[in-house]
Amino acid sequence: MNRSLFDALRRGGYIFYARHGEATVGRDLPNLNFQNCLTQRNLSEKGRRQATYYGEILRSLQIPIQFPVSASPFCRTIETAQLAFGSGNVQVDPFLVDIYRLSGDLISSERQGILNNLLFMLERIPEGGNKVIVAHSFPEGVGLGQIPDMGTVIISPKGQGSGFEVVSKLSLSDFSSLGS
Length: 180
Fold this sequence. Notes:
Layout: H1 3-11, E1 15-19, H2 45-60, E2 69-71, H3 75-85, E3 90-92, H4 97-101, H5 108-123, E4 131-135, E5 152-157, E6 164-170, H6 172-176
Parallel strand pairs: 1-4, 2-3, 2-4
Antiparallel strand pairs: 1-5, 5-6
Helix pairs in contact: 2-3
Protein name: Histidine phosphatase family protein
């Protein structure tokens, strides 16, 4: 990890788009209910450790985070965000379900609408730290692409209507070496 990126992250103004920690094997049930975690894949024990470590490493590196952090309504994303940043520091963003839906069968206009809304979200420059979004990976070649468990895409927003730049894609172990 290069020093200039580390210094830039400590100044703030970036968006950290993080995928949730490792989830249990299987699929979300067809009768998925956001209020019932039994209808969803949830964090595994390893995923819980990853989420806790993620928050610890960002705090130890003194990377400023803007609160509340945003999480998709799935139990695994909310739990990831709560373990990393504290339960009082998480706000559910219903739009982030649409990122999950990109992996399904969508008509092209619906897919494009989701990607346009994502662009709008990722163009907004955060004030007072770095914005954290805990959500889902993307299908290969779509949006921010595939993201490993607890991986983070570092985004530099250019302001509304001006797009954004993907600065880096970091695994959880990349963060460990960030300060060295």
